[in-house]
Sequence to fold (431 residues):
Amino acid sequence: MKKSFLLSLLLIFSLIISACSSNSSTEEKPEGNSEGGGDAQAPLDIFSWWTGAGEEDGLKALLAIFEEKYPDIPVENAAVAGGAGTNAKAVLASRMQGDDPPATFQVHGGAELNEGWVAAGKMEPLNDFYEAEGLNDKFPQDLIDMVSKDGNIYSVPVNIHRGNVLWYNKKVFEENGLQAPTTFDEFFEVADALKEKGITPLALGDKEPWTATHLYETVLLGVLGNEDYGKLWTGELSFDDPKVVKAAEIFQKMLTYINDDHSSRNWQDASQLVANGEAAMNVMGDWAKGYFVNDLNLKVNEDFGYIPTPGTEGQFMVITDTFGLPKGVENSEGVKKFLSVLASVEGQDAFNPLKGSIPARVDADIEKYDQYGKDTMEDFKTGKLAPSLAHGSAASEGFLTKVNQSINIFVTQQNTDQFTQDMTAAAVELK
Ligand code: GAL
Fold:
């Protein structure tokens, strides 16, 4: 494993630990001027990791709406590059620890928000904001629950991403007379057929290790099913349980079908292998659809197809990007104006078609979305929801950091016993 990666993991981990344990210093700060104080013209720095291909177009569309509505409030796009917050989370932790929060920041609903920044006392509750903006019935209750702790709501969801999607190159499948696999057995049959033809069956780009964690969690969901998958995060199901070991074995077998240069590619580079037919399949969240369509000009259901990852039909690995109001910001009223744009039908329908996600709002305009979006909205309504580990919803950042580390080692060494031991040891973080 690369030394620089280990060092950055350590940095993220220690920054998060210290940020989370510095409640006392927050208490000395003013309570975020949330009752109308502060400088109403102070610039808003909007913090995320949405830079570059497939990521930033939606954000820019949102910022443009805000600028048009509120020309007197300067906004700054303070995005830090790196998929899934690889670098942004460390920068954020250091700013939060130094009591220099961004005006608002991207944070996943679930543990990342609630066990992280809310538990550390760093966020303002937004119950009054939800009430004033009439938002309480505008989001699915499951989503509101993901951004709530102890009866208070702490952020506003801008989208719903699906994590358990298998993307495939339509032409490659058609030319080889193959069907998209729905089970692991089918996956391996298809993968063998492709391998024989000299086509890489599965694209992976784990230069940033979260992509391998992303693949692994879809295997966990496919093998365990929704209920047992959920038990992993409460400690009711141990990582050395035979069912979980079986998932690790399947994951290991899948790794024997990936591209050789996986460790030098990021998620976009891996998606590109599928786009140009060098690889047949890729497991990635549906930000990949934003990339395929808006950056690579591919057509949904012509150039690429999509199907739930093996064994996960009827299940929906849910990832929601949300923004809240940190304590101690200069222009809290301005932040609320930004959150109001982000929460609006107009804002969500500008952002999500570009981002690849579906709107978090229940009353968005379905006609603004392509067939993938329409299918995904339906699947969200009918599917069993499962929180993503790789994207911060299922478990604390401390655990996730260790998981990314173990998985990165596993991809190289492919030692299932070692991996099982590492994951079981990491699970003490789950408490
Ligand atoms: C996720 C995030 C998505 C997308 C993806 C790749 O964590 O929720 O919006 O940005 O990372 O960077």
Remarks:
- The domain at 31-161+319-386 is CATH 3.40.190.10 (D-Maltodextrin-Binding Protein; domain 2).
